[in-house]
Amino acid sequence: xxxxxxxxxxxxxxxxxxxxxxxxxxxxxxxxxxxxxxxxxxxxxxxxxxxxxxxxxxxxxxxxxxxxxxxxxxxxxxxxxxxxxxxxxxxxxxxxxxxxxxxxxxxxxxxxxxxxxxxxxxxxxxxxxxxxxxxxxxxxxxxxxxxxxxxxxxxxxxxxxxxxxxxxxxxxxxxxxxxxxxxxxxxxxxxxxxxxxxxxxxxxxxxxxxxxxxxxxxxxxxxxxxxxxxxxxxxxxxxxxxxxxxxxxxxxxxxxxxxxxxxxxxxxxxxxxxxxxxxxxxxxxxxxxxxxxxxxxxxxxxxxxxxxxxxxxxxxxxxxxxxxxxxxxxxxxxxxxxxxxxxxxxxxxxxxxxxxxxxxxxxxxxxxxxxxxxxxxxxxxxxxxxxxxxxxxxxxxxxxxxxxxxxxxxxxxxxxxxxxxxxxxxxxxxxxxxxxxxxxxxxxxxxxxxxxxxxxxxxxxxxxxxxxxxxxxxxxxxxxxxxxxxxxxxxxxxxxxxxxxxxxxxxxxxxxxxxxxxxxxxxxxxxxxxxxxxxxxxxxxxxxxxxxxxxxxxxxxxxxxxxxxxxxxxxxxxxxxxxxxxxxxxxxxxxxxxxxxxxxxxxxxxxxxxxxxxxxxxxxxxxxxxxxxxxxxxxxxxxxxxxxxxxxxxxxxxxxxxxxxxxxxxxxxxxxxxxxxxxxxxxxxxxxxxxxxxxxxxxxxxxxxxxxxxxxxxxxxxxxxxxxxxxxxxxxxxxxxxxxxxxxxxxxxxxxxxxxxxxxxxxxxxxxxxxxxxxxxxxxxxxxxxxxxxxxxxx
Length: 795
Fold this sequence. Notes:
By secondary structure, this protein is of the alpha+beta class.
């Protein structure tokens, strides 16, 4: 039987000044940080102090003893970042130039000093650029010339920390006669039966040996012969339980085992978990343009999505537990789709395992983002090799439902001035419209592929045409008020978002000793977006009086504005289902402490946006929308049952007076939206009035409620908020005596580890809310009041 031995001990990292202990898997930065050679690049402006690391060559070394009783021994690297030469006692075993691939070297009978010598990623990329020529990109760094995580060169939310190292596990594999080289599982559902086709490739040391494979799943077994180096076995599982995305059903997973046999003896085994489900993508034309609707097991769905970036700029630090924590946070917010963005990586098995179990659909980008990518060698061969490996590696996961060719490159070619600058040079179109769809069709025919995001489906339409395919809505953040989201109904919004700073405790940790201000040195260093603070300020000024010299107030209001902006988009677009079939918020997470579009900051703390997503992505969402010169209450029902009832409508003044009241019945079918006109006499008029729509009665301010204020907050004469605060272990209760709008308990101001179970809440006079708090060891009402923020009268 094949024996696998991890090769993780005894490594050292050699550099110009000597050597130090190395952790494998890991990277140069984390080893230098552990040894105290560099400061933490996440703190203050230390990032600038460690830029030299990415410009140096580095060597990892350990002793290798590969002798064994087996016929062959392989040295297997699951990931090398990135341009490396592998040597044994100074003799080359091979070279690598792709972070997204694994590598295997025959070391049978060998022993000696193993060295992995990493060239600077800059040097390798610049050498390739010299061979293939200059290509335009969104950033000046040379990321298009190297198959490496693009965002390690920096992004508009990330630091420039260009890594090198053995970033995924390394091991020795000892085997005889034959081993399983690859298993390609095609999983489908036919007539109520789960079908698994396992296409097997083997590597042999003995050509004449008779080989067979035996497979088992769901109590069913099957056997097939291996002809040469390939074979296939097919299994049918009667009455297979279907795997569903969260909110639509359960997530049953089946263990599949395939064993390679020789003369009835087991040589090797392959084990995975699968789920039985069908997935399709409807891109047919209709009266509104060209659709983009995912269907799982025949059920068409509005995708409630978030974009995912690498959760750490040093991916080797992301543990299985950290993946699960972050993805549990996503699921708890009502998310059912996670898009793995193309400037990052193909994530580890731990990521996809968690998505399988949580019912989170995965949209997987191939790693191309915001640049023209050369199609010449040595890049083209690397692109095909990584695509083939990762498509097959990820195929077992039922959560994976879509392959996407790139992020914004088709759009960039058309709109960002690339076409003229390229002068006919290759730029990646051959990958997205040729190579990648061919690889997916050949290897993974049961999953859909789309050429890019955004992409209208063909060059007959603008790549980012909202009426056709996927759309990225960035004009609003860059230039407009978020009310602008309401002017369009895209078929599928794959990116949109609004910035806000991270939690207060995150800033205090990341910027120790700094007097915080929006434009303080550390705050500016941890704001990577072009004119990011200017956009934050202009977006804030459209709704609020911008607080001058009051950082705490600025911090609160920018977080409110982020939640408001994303809510404006999602409520509008969800109310137009099925024309609009999904929203994917930019972004769920951060890779370090930074002002960004994330709902969860770089220390894992939830911003108010995160809690707002729980409301916005709930199965049932009431929202007041403008339609045809009037107002409607849109009852958005993504639940499997109809939603019927009566909504209580109140036209109120900000002073708490009820100016008009009525009840309107509604009924929304399953997975449907019902628009109920708001009577004209209940529509609020002027800055002092607003509309309250309660679908369920009672005293709970978190009952299903929609609010509509016709005027921006800076024009609303809010009363000075009055409320009582009481505390108990694990809870803070607020009772309002006036209108209290957008009340927020910043629990991390009580204690850095503290977390609140909800975000922004608006209380009417006489209402109360109890906020659960965990991690607060010394409850105190004065401290709780000091950590509570809400909107106040404009000074």
